[in-house]
Amino acid sequence: MPYPTLRCDPKLFEKDLTGYVAIVTGANSGCGLETSRQLSKQGATVVLACRSAERGKAAAEDVGGSFLAPLDLASLASVRSFTDAFLAKYDRLDILVNNAGIMACPKGKTKDGNEMQIGCNHLAHFLLLRLLTSALLKTAETTGKPSRFVALSSCAAAQTTGNTTVDPDIDFDDLNWEKREYDEWKAYSASKLANYLTAMSASSKFSSEKLISTGVHPGWVYSPLDKHAMAQKIGEGWIAEKVGSLLKNMLYWKGDIISPADGAQTTLHCILDDEVVSGKFYSQKGIYKDEASQAGGWPMVLPNPNATEEKAEKLWSVSEKLVGL
């Protein structure tokens, strides 16, 4: 029987966020859309950061948010253009949610020459955080309340019941998979570990009185994120799409896959709850190989011995060089 879905205390949704400014990446679908919807409902100004202007504008209209400029995570220049546009319009930033992601895609390169998953999931989001850190800290100084940074990681940052047999790790000698045979799942897991390590490192660099940084596993969410994984399992074409949709529906009704609204719960908890601890990992139920972790926890220890402060610090330093800071 599936573990129960973790959900926010309803009182958190009564908080008045009028005047708050938030950025949510990948906000035109899935958890990002529902996170944006809830924050907007509570009065926040939510900037939906999406690659497609058309989809971003439609999503912003849907949730009562704002679309400012396209954000293509496969281009560091696009990240810089987005942040320039944001900082030219807004003088505060209370909430940054690095939500967007790709999963187990075929081998490819970003426009900057980085492996696609480490490039989009980690490096572009890292640059976004670094370019906006001053705004987050300045806002905290002005409001007297810590700003919030949420990095969406995954249970795949640890061993899972799927196809992993070793603890995910960061290969600093081959971040872009130029020396090894490409493995789309190991590349995904490394990028998701990098997401949490970024939050961990941010928590040590910035006082929790100014910035609360957390890593999040949202759960297995009914969204387009798993399209490459589904294609690997059942192939491509319209018949495969129908079979994949049927399979996902069965897992949804079984309780293994959760709705985007439920997938947003852990992120919203990390944004809204006053007891959230900076640097910790907050997880919805997940397919962890470690049975004690499968129920999730707000917070819990990521069951991966490679999630260390030393590795987080090294990743921060290496990432700054790779994104040109």
Taking all Cα atoms into account, the compactness measure Rg is 18 Å
Q: Mean pLDDT, nearest integer?
A: 92
H-E string: EHEHHEHEHEHHHHEEH
Largest sheet: 7 strands, mixed
Distance between the termini: 48 Å
User: Structural class, from secondary structure content?
Assistant: alpha/beta
Number of helices: 10
Uncertain segments? none
Shape: globular
Strands, count: 7
Strand order of the largest sheet: 2-1-3-4-5-6-7
Measured by DSSP, the beta-strand proportion falls in: 5-15%
Structural account:
Helices cover 42% and strands 10% of the residues. With 325 residues, it is of the alpha/beta class. It has a 7-stranded mixed β-sheet with strand order 2-1-3-4-5-6-7, with helices on both faces. The relative contact order is 0.16. The mean pLDDT is 92.
Overview in brief:
This protein has about 325 residues and is of the alpha/beta class. It is about 40% helix and about 10% strand.
Question: What secondary-structure arrangement, pairings included, does this model have?
Answer:
Blueprint: E1 21-25, H1 30-41, E2 45-49, H2 53-63, H3 76-89, E3 95-98, H4 116-143, E4 147-152, H5 184-205, E5 211-217, H6 227-234, H7 238-254, H8 260-263, H9 265-272, E6 281-283, E7 297-300, H10 309-322
Parallel strand pairs: 1-2, 1-3, 3-4, 4-5, 5-6
Antiparallel strand pairs: 6-7
Helix pairs in contact: 3-4, 4-5, 5-10
